[in-house]
Structure prediction request, 133 residues.
Amino acid sequence: MSDDDPFADLGETLEDEPDDEPQDTDDASESEADEETPSQEPVERRNPMTDSAFSYEAAKQRPFYAREATIEDFDSWLKYELERELNQQGYQNIVVREMTDALLRTVVEEDLVDEVAERFEQARESASSESTE
Prediction:
């Protein structure tokens, strides 16, 4: 850690990849975990039930501008509905970036334009009717 920047090592401590888990030092298990292919570096086997789909560094954080009540509802849904469902399916080490990525991909891939546009229109109409009262 540098005296000039007390947060210089923050990225190292925030990584959610479990680097400090006990490693089996048996040579046979190492050769099983890393398969070498010609002209490529060893490929590490990933367990989809415990390993995240992508690293923190691969994610791009973007702000969401929404009403506080909507954000609270979203956070509750993410934690108490989606994360619980994933836990029940056996997934471990679930991180918010993966759930958010899956949610955004769902909106795009399922072509939810009509549904999102309808919610947009409802909000506009509701705000308009509240201002005339």
Summary: The CA atoms of residues 46 and 52 lie 9 Å apart. Confidence is low (pLDDT under 50) at residues 7-35. The chain is about 50% helix and 5% strand.
